[in-house]
Design a protein that fits this description.
Shape: elongated
CATH superfamily of the largest domain: Hypothetical protein af1432
Radius of gyration: 24 Å
Strand content: 5-15%
Largest sheet: 4 strands, parallel
Length: 398
């Protein structure tokens, strides 16, 4: 997405003005690089005139030529000191379908305690999200207890026949590829281990909790979303194998659940989420996070994180849900989060693009994982072969 920056300073001293302008340029460049925005140019206001900013006026005129899609500023007040001028600038840009991205507003949307508590969605909607079933909380408690046995864990899961069926479907799916059918939960625990079984219990339960509501206008394609999540899991496993890392027990569940915030937005703030998707309909659209914040008061990463914390999910899952678009911001489980980030983009390529495009990936994440374009092309080809016959998550589990 092509954007331009706009910098201005109202400081009167020449040196102070120079330093502020320099700082704004650096922050705009860093922001665009981080969010994969193509920065075409930066418009710099050279005359300190609050009443008539000539460079800003030229920028507005250039907007009519559609050479860029959006404007990035450090903060909205950079545009003008008075509200009347700011309103005029905004209306002129809206007339040309140009949005203003404020770096300060975007950073404020990160899930600090203050921003979360102020969100109307969190205040009025999230309280209605169901708690995890008792059997799931018992499973998590047993997994965290070092004195628990496979027999105890198996007994808890087996009491719920529906959960038992869903978990065994996952265990016997193509994802794990066991040569023989696994017919009991205890056998599955012995093969896969406590942590992996916990992830399968969580994934299958949450998949059921957030089944699409039949009375809703279909704005979010659930079948496609779960298929995307499944391909993300398959790709993440391939990446982990390529890097010759020890299998991470949370790879499958964190990849399956990374976009859970989108489903929660759709089910608990439906009308506002429709508006957000209309503004940024493509899943790889860089405007998506801004649109969710604009209409819903919170983006899907932060909302997913909030609910994952409330559910007391494992730390690896929480970090992936919270940082899957910006994995290097994760202070913990950075490698897992980065692997799911790359898997997420490969899944989008599989479903939404005709050809592989290295430009979709953040080069800093690739450098962190020591992956290059040839590596990614190889992994992408392997994933494409593996998913040829997958229609959706339901058929995958049969």
């Amino acid at each position: 997405m092509k954007v331009v920056g706009y910098v201005n300073s109202y400081k009167t001293h020449k040196d102070d003005r120079f330093l502020e302008i320099k700082s704004q340029k650096e922050k705009i460049s860093e922001f665009c690089q981080k969010h994969n925005l193509e920065l075409v140019k930066i418009y710099e206001e050279t005359i300190n005139n609050a009443d008539f900013p000539p460079v800003l006026t030229r920028l507005i005129n250039d907007a009519a030529n559609k050479n860029f899609e959006h404007i990035v500023v450090l903060k909205i007040d950079i545009l003008a000191k008075d509200n009347l001028t700011k309103t005029w600038v905004t209306s002129e840009l809206n007339r040309h379908n140009i949005r203003i991205y404020s770096i300060a507003e975007f950073n404020a949307s990160k899930p600090s305690t203050a921003s979360i508590s102020e969100s109307k969605l969190v205040k009025y909607k999230v309280k209605d999200i169901p708690s995890l079933p008792e059997v799931v909380t018992k499973v998590m408690e047993l997994v965290q207890n070092p004195n628990s046995s496979a027999a105890q864990l198996s007994k808890v899961i087996s009491h719920d026949t529906g959960l038992t069926s869903r978990v065994l479907k996952l265990v016997n799916s193509a994802y794990y590829g066991f040569p023989k059918q696994i017919s009991s939960i205890q056998h599955a625990i012995m093969i896969l281990g406590f942590t992996t079984i916990r992830g399968l219990v969580l994934s299958s339960t949450i998949f059921k909790i957030f089944a699409p509501k039949n009375d809703r206008v279909k704005v979010l394609d659930y079948k496609r979303l779960w298929k995307h999540s499944l391909i993300t899991a398959i790709a993440a496993k391939r990446i982990n194998k390529f890097l010759r890392l020890q299998e991470d027990d949370d790879i499958f569940s964190s990849a399956i659940l990374h976009d859970i915030g989108k489903i929660i937005l759709d089910q608990y703030d439906h009308e506002n989420y429709i508006s957000a998707l209309q503004e940024a309909p493509h899943p790889m659209d860089n405007r998506m996070m801004f649109a969710e914040k604009r209409y819903c008061g919170i983006n899907h990463q932060d909302l997913g994180y909030l609910v994952a914390e409330e559910w007391n999910l494992p730390p690896g899952l929480i970090n992936v849900i919270h940082y899957h678009h910006y994995p290097l911001e994760a202070l913990e489980h950075t490698r897992l989060t980065s692997i799911v980030y790359v898997g997420n983009i490969i899944a989008h390529i599989a479903l939404d693009f005709d050809n592989f495009d290295i430009g979709l990936f953040d080069e800093r994440v690739l450098e962190y994982l020591s992956l290059d374009e040839d590596n990614l092309c190889q992994i992408n080809s392997e994933v494409m072969l593996e998913i040829e016959n997958i229609e959706d998550l339901e058929s995958f589990l049969r």
